[in-house]
Each structure stands twice: as C-alpha cells, then as structure tokens.
Amino acid sequence: MAWLDDSRQKEIHSIVEDVRIKTAFSYPEKNIVDLANDLGVSVFEEDFPLHPSVNAMLVYADEKNNNLPTIYLKKDLPDTRKRFTLAHELGHYLLHKKDGIKFRLDDFDYSDESNNSLEETEANYFAACILVPELELRKLLRFFEDDVNVIAEYFGVSKEVIQNRIAWLQTNQTN
Ligand SMILES: [Zn+2]
Q1: Which of 59, 81, 129, 139 has its CA 20 to 30 A from that of 28?
Q2: Could you tell me the distance, in angstroms and rounded to a whole number, from the CA of residue 142 to the centre of ligand 1?
Q3: What's the 53 CA to ligand 1 centre distance in angstroms?
Q4: For residues 18 and 149, what is the distance between their CA atoms, to the nearest angstrom?
Q5: Tens-digit pLDDT profile for residues 2-43
Q6: One-letter-per-residue 3-state SS of the chain
Q7: Do the strands 56-59 and 103-106 form a parallel or antiparallel pair, or are they unpaired?
Q8: Structure confidence at residue 174 (pLDDT)
Q9: What pLDDT, in 10s, does the model give residues 108-162?
Q10: How far is the CA of 114 from the centre of ligand 1 (A)?
C-alpha cells in the first residue's frame, strides 16, 4: 500500500472534520448514505453486468448541465463492503476532483495489498477516518483490547479496516 506523508494525512483529517461539521455526523446515529446525501451526493445501487469487477462508479457534478454528483454502488456487495466502498468513493469525490474528468469506475479491493495507487490509499484513509472515528476507536480499544472482531462489528466495517486504522494510529504516535 502506498504511504501518505504527515502533511497529506493532516489535510485529509481536516477534510474529514469539515465533513463532520457540515453533516453533524455522529456515529452511529447517522448512516453513511445520509451523510453522502447531506454532502449533496446521491447514492444508488446498481448492477454492472458489463463490468463485473467494478464495485462502484462516481459521477462528478457537471456544472454546465447542473447534474448532481452521484455514486452508484454494486448491489450485491456485502453490507460492510458497501459502507466502506461508499465512504471510499466520497473520499475520491472530496479529494480527487479534476478538471475534465466526469466519472471514475472503481474496482479497487482494499484487501489487496498489491494496489499501490496513492489515490486509492488516500480514499481508503478518508473512508477509515469517517467510518472509524479516532476517539471512539481509542475508547473501544481500552474496553476490548485487541478483539478486532468485536470492534469491527461495532463500526460496521471489516476486520482489515480496523487493523489498518490501528496501524495508522500507531505510526502517528511514533512521529
Ligand atoms: Zn478508489
């Protein structure tokens, strides 16, 4: 997995804080679809029969036509995958807007360590920060120590997401 330097991590943290303030996001009362809607992003579930490896498609807003930004999620993803994928696409939406790019197809598998793209790492980092808030995670770690399964279930994410989040937190502490 690609690595993010301190300043980029801080930028992403401040974008995550902005999102929290804008959406009054408080886990777990508000679900991630509501959060996307509060950011002006519509969310739909789709099949991608022509592109079976695609998990999601992000359509950026087209200001000329007044199109709203939209995320299409693959219908048959397991719930934890769906939540993470939606948060990941929101990361691309907020972090990787580029002139002239209208949409992106995402077949990224976050459990695949061979994926070295910086943008994918950034979107994953954003998703983990949104879905697994640091303070909440630290509290749970005190209660459940390293019982990653219980913590993953609490946050509605996979075990790998929690393991990665803990690894990032531990790295930050040594800096
Ligand atoms: Zn991606």
Answers
A1: 59
A2: 32
A3: 13
A4: 29
A5: 678 889 999 999 999 999 888 887 665 568 999 999 999 999
A6: CCCCCHHHHHHHHHHHHHHHHHHCCCCCCCCHHHHHHHCCCEEEEECCCCCCCCCEEEECCECCCCECCEEEEECCCCHHHHHHHHHHHHHHHHHCCCCCCCEEEECCCCCCCCCCCHHHHHHHHHHHHHHCCHHHHHHHHHHHCCCHHHHHHHHCCCHHHHHHHHHHHHHHHHC
A7: antiparallel
A8: 47
A9: 655 555 556 889 999 999 999 999 999 999 999 999 887 999 999 999 999 999 9
A10: 14
Q: What is the dihedral of CA 93, 98, 99, 102, to 10 degrees?
A: -50
User: pTM of the full predicted structure?
Assistant: 0.89
Neighbouring-strand partners of residue 169? none
Residue type, 27: Y
Distance 94 CA to ligand 1 centre (A): 12
Ligand 1 midpoint to CA 4 (Å):
15
